[in-house]
Automatic annotation (TrEMBL), chain A:
Provenance organism: Paranoxybacillus vitaminiphilus
Functional summary from the UniProt entry: Component of the menaquinol:cytochrome c reductase complex. The Rieske protein is a high potential 2Fe-2S protein.
One protein family per Pfam: Rieske
Family statement drawn from the similarity comment of this UniProt entry: Belongs to the Rieske iron-sulfur protein family.
Domain Rieske: 87-160
Xref: PANTHER family: CYTOCHROME B-C1 COMPLEX SUBUNIT RIESKE, MITOCHONDRIAL (PTHR10134)
UniProt entry keywords in alphabetical sequence: 2Fe-2S, Disulfide bond, Electron transport, Iron, Iron-sulfur, Membrane, Metal-binding, Oxidoreductase, Transmembrane, Transmembrane helix, Transport
InterPro entries (UniProt xref): Rieske_2Fe-2S, Rieske_2Fe-2S_sf, Rieske_Fe-S_prot, TAT_signal
Membrane spanning residue stretches: 12-34
Subunit structure: The main subunits of the menaquinol:cytochrome c complex are a Rieske-type iron-sulfur protein (QcrA), a cytochrome b (QcrB) and a cytochrome c (QcrC).
Keyword set includes Transport: yes
Protein name: Menaquinol:cytochrome c reductase iron-sulfur subunit
TrEMBL record, chain B:
Organism: Paranoxybacillus vitaminiphilus
Protein name (Swiss-Prot/TrEMBL): Uncharacterized protein DUF2487
One Pfam match: DUF2487
Length: 169, 151
């Protein structure tokens, strides 16, 4: 990666990120394993709406967050909408891809986001909780499980489609 | 939540859950440093947009508070205080102002809400990977601040 190609050099980049907001930084936590689906350059499979999100070999039994973009067409303009998925292999070795959008009012949930609730998804907005498989924990605000993405695997790459609701738990 | 009919509909039904307002403070000028001032605003808008995506269910992202750089700090504080009291009178408990404009640091003590200052990072010549990483880093720092105010 040649430094002089970018007007923002590596040093500037570090300065920006290390100083900056650092001044009023609260303890660093949250967003534990953020991964970007960059390299398989978000190629869309011809004819389908599925997007390449991750390499199967990177998927573990621990949910990891993968970020990707989907094209959305809104009446008069097209844009790219950022999306995320929590992806893991379940006990049977099958891949599960959950939408991080809280079914209460739509905040983004995090795996292990709350120390008091290990191995659950946590919503920081009104303290919603979900089990690993996405089932909402009764007594917390959400009343539905997390949506699941349609998925398919081709040549070692995971493709995700639409997030589908699972209905009442 | 954003200031759109669709989001406002949810807001009206779920008011008690949406107690945090985020106001981007965006300077304007056609005189000096026009480009860097525009890029400041652009950066802040990207970050608050991402913040809204993460915290949609609790945070109301307001349309930006805009001002010409020639407006006096006194005048701006008066206006922003007015915005703030409209919001708190209607149930908002946490008010955050997000800006890259260093001017606000001088006025911080007289602001009724919390000022979150971001360094302005010119994203336009950066490659996609750095860009995403920076936006993510800055957003997660803001998220942590909001979370710590909430608890
Ligand atoms: S938006 Fe997740 S608990 Fe309210």
């Amino acid at each position: 990666m040649s430094e002089n190609k970018h007007r923002v050099s590596r040093r500037q980049f570090l300065n920006y990120t290390l100083t900056g907001v650092g001044g009023f930084m609260a303890a660093g936590m949250l967003m534990p394993m953020v991964r970007f689906a960059l390299d398989p350059i978000l190629k869309e499979e011809a004819g389908t709406e599925m997007v390449a999100v991750a390499q199967v070999k990177d998927i573990t039994t621990e949910p990891q967050r993968f970020d990707f973009k989907v094209k959305v067409k809104d009446a008069w303009y097209e844009s790219e909408e950022p999306k995320s998925a929590w992806v893991y292999k379940d006990d049977k070795g099958e891949i599960v891809a959950l939408s991080p959008v809280c079914k209460h009012l739509g905040c983004t949930v995090n795996w292990n986001g709350d120390k008091g609730n290990p191995n659950r998804f946590f919503c920081p907005c009104h303290y919603g909780l979900y089990e690993k498989d996405g089932t909402n924990v009764p007594g917390t605000p959400p009343i539905y499980p997390l949506d699941r993405y349609e998925l398919k695997v081709k040549d070692g790459t995971l493709y995700l489609g639409k997030a589908k609701p699972r209905g009442e738990a | 939540m954003k200031w759109t009919a669709k989001d406002v509909e949810v807001y009206l039904q779920e008011k008690e859950y949406i107690d945090t307002a985020v106001i981007p403070l965006i300077p304007l000028t056609l005189e000096k440093n026009v480009k860097s001032i525009a890029s400041m605003g652009e950066f802040v808008q990207i970050i608050v947009g991402e913040l809204e995506r993460q915290f949609k269910g609790r945070v109301f992202l307001l349309p930006p508070f805009t001002y010409f750089t020639s407006e006096s700090m006194e005048e701006k504080i008066k206006r922003i205080a007015d915005w703030t009291s409209q919001l708190t009178a209607n149930g908002m408990k946490h008010i955050f102002y997000v800006t890259s404009d260093t001017e606000w640091k001088a006025g911080e003590a007289s602001l009724p809400g919390t000022l979150l200052w971001l360094p302005s990072i010119p994203l336009e010549h950066m490659d996609e990977k750095y860009k995403q990483q920076i936006v993510m880093d800055q957003t997660s720092q803001l998220m942590n601040l909001l979370i710590s105010k909430w608890s």
